[in-house]
Amino acid sequence: MHHARDQALHRLWSLRFGLSVPIEAALELLKLPYRVEECSPWESEEQADKLRTINPMIQVPALVLPSGRLMTESAAILIWLADNTPEGRLAPALSDPARGEFLRWMTFVSSAVYALYWIADNPSRVLERPEDHEEIRARLFERIARCWAFMGNQLRPGRYLLGQELSVLDLYVATASRWSPGRRRFNEVAPSLADAVSRVDADPRLASLWSHRYPFAPGWER
Fold this sequence. Notes:
single chain, alpha+beta, Glutaredoxin, 2 domains, four-stranded mixed β-sheet, 10 helices, 46% helix
């Protein structure tokens, strides 16, 4: 990852393997200096308090900009980084006909897919009976698979999801599609998206990041 004087750094509060990873990927591709601050607020009150001083919601990712301003919400951070560094060409410009589709799918992944993991990761947040937890996880993962299928039926990718150029949408989906129900299931229900996403996996500019932050360990596709 990049290093520079603190006043020039983007500080990313993160969980390992979380949706901070596509933000790190965007920072890498845009060549923006950053530092990752890992935090696990469920492990102790001390960790929770540490994150609370950054984000009162006690959630990650949280990106502190060089100006000191805070950004949260993965989709918003990715869109902002791409728009604020237009020379990196990681999002369609406002005047680009693809802009509407870009915004549609960025918010779709956030609301229809990512939001469900708040329950799937800890069903006790909404269900008290432990014996119900595995069933609710299974139903949520099936819902996520249906959402990927819907996206696959609607999009017409080129080399990447929105055409010939890589965007932060590709980074977002490449990471989220590795979570349960897993990339194998993603490829089954959305085969039209598989090549574009695997192209992100293989991007040599991201090889070091994937190896360090989200390695392709044996059986990762599940």
